[in-house]
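Hi team,

Filling in the usual template for the complex we talked about on Friday. All components are listed, including any nucleic acid strands or ligand strings, so the model treats them as one assembly.

SUBMITTER: L.P.
PURPOSE: interface mapping
COMPONENTS: two
RESIDUES: 634
SEQUENCES:
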Amino acid sequence: MPSSTPASAMSDRAVEIGQAPAQEQVYRPWRAIARKFFSYKASVVSLVILILIVLFAFAGGPLWKYSYAVSTSDLSAPPSWEHPFGTDHLGYDLMAGVMRGTQRSLSIAGTVAVLATLIGSIWGAVAGYVGGWADSLLMRIVDLIMIFPLLAVAAFLARQSQGGEHGWLLVALVLATLSWTVLARVVRSVVLSLRTREFVIAAKIAGAGPVRIIFRHLLPNTVGPIIVAATVLVASAILSETALSYLGFGVQPPDTSLGLLINQAQGAISTRPWLFYFPGLFIILIALCVAFIGDGLRAALDPKQQRK
Amino acid sequence: MLAYLVRRLLVMIPMMLIASFLMFVVISFSGDPLAGLKTMQPPPPPEVLHAMAVKLRLDQPLLDRYWMWLSGLFVGDFGPSIHNIDIGAELVKRLGVSLRLLALGIVLAFLMAVAASVIGAVLQFSWADHIISFVAVAMISMPVFWLALQLKRLAISINQELGFRLLYTSGDGAGMTASTPWDRVLLLIGVLALPTIALSMQACGKWSRYGRVALIDALNSEYVKLARAKGLSETRVVLAHGLRTSLAPMLTVVAAGGAVILGESVVTETVFQWRGMGDLLVTGIQNNDVYVVLGWLLVAGLIIMVFNLIADILYAVLDPRIRYER
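RESULT (copied from the run log):
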């Protein structure tokens, strides 16, 4: 059951704000949050569309009759039943390309979100809890990284080792090492407000070390802001990856991504516009869905809004 | 205020030094600048490779290299280039081109964001508010290069309708001349219009969402109630009392977005084939010209720091509760 650990963490919060759960009726905040989330129509619709896109990208590839890497004899064909998204001037089926590209773009965004969330949360929690010079040092490092345009640094680093089967993983690693800073700031500010709370002091008196306090007591209580910040990260990672690939520094051919597809199509905007519409539509749809899901989560997880 | 300004400017010096060192180390360790040369067919003779390595100071230890680069900066020497580019001169020239786009894009985005947040906050939950909110999210979700390509397509049909070239879809206007002042204005608009719109949309979407919330908060506050009770007109209440304080939190978001918009200007310039900072960086990376990339990042870091400083000063001007004197 994935809900067991967070539930216990949340009951910490319930105790801390003085609402001790009744003995016979266990307080299940995650169920309330889920109910709240599912009451936002835009968020639920977005979630459904995103799941469909994920299925389309990951399950569609093997099922579809054409491969993104094998050309057909239909050159520059507009969308039809045979090629729903059309083909390019070399006869590659665009729907197969979009499936593969979406797969790559989603894998990169997911990897970036997971890694950056891990690094950023731990970094921010340590800075906020330890405080003093360690806090100053850790947060100045965050400031330093934020001075530079992510896209420029990522372009240089990703370019250094070209292509290959795992080329996309390198792009993801580069983006993750540059984008965790936002998470660190968010988590630090939450931890700063929690570190003097009773449950932390109680844990400290009971003999818990800083590592245990950070991982067992502080981080579980910052899950709300972390999830919201992570969704923002997914959306911005999609846009960064596509921009990198568009510039030619991200995913390299023969592999493909949504940004690379648009890069390859830009010479044919007026003659074969479909090549340029479909990949763009998928980028916008993914980013839009993630944004609306994030809005729903923010509203569902924000205790301020629950009071209303 | 002056003391604060001096202190902020002084803090920038160590920040920039540490940042430049960090940058230098990361870039030096991330790969071999001669890798492209070494894999050339036919391979260049070893003497050429050696001469190139000496030229790029690769025979020196890392710390010496950093020192040579740093001390060179003070006399305007940005380091050696693989393709014999005068990096300093090139940076100055390109910066002039790019700053136009950057400044105009940021101003346009900010003005549109303010207008959108005023409409959204005053007409909260109306259809206009819902439409603006949706457009804002759509703008945030739209990749800059896709929007820019879309605008290019649109411009081509506009030009066809008009029968003459009003909007330029490529080039930064360098080398183009106009005889009359009127033609010069038209040329400037034609060159700048599309890239500025493309660059500003995403930022505008982001900023208007924060602006709307900040203005709603401000309009619900006590001092706005007082202003209303005193019988001030609604326009005055919103613009002079509500908007003024809500611009301050908006500025924080604007300042934080400096690095992002600078990165997006690289993409925008690439789509419109400008010979600005974006092109310098992209070709620098393609050629593995490390000192070009280093110089570029240095200038970018400085721009963002100055940008943050301006935002902080405006913050104090706008919000009378904030004073920097101590």
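MY TAKE: The CA atoms of residues 140 and 206 of chain B lie 6 Å apart. Chain B is about 75% helix and 0% strand.

Thanks, L.
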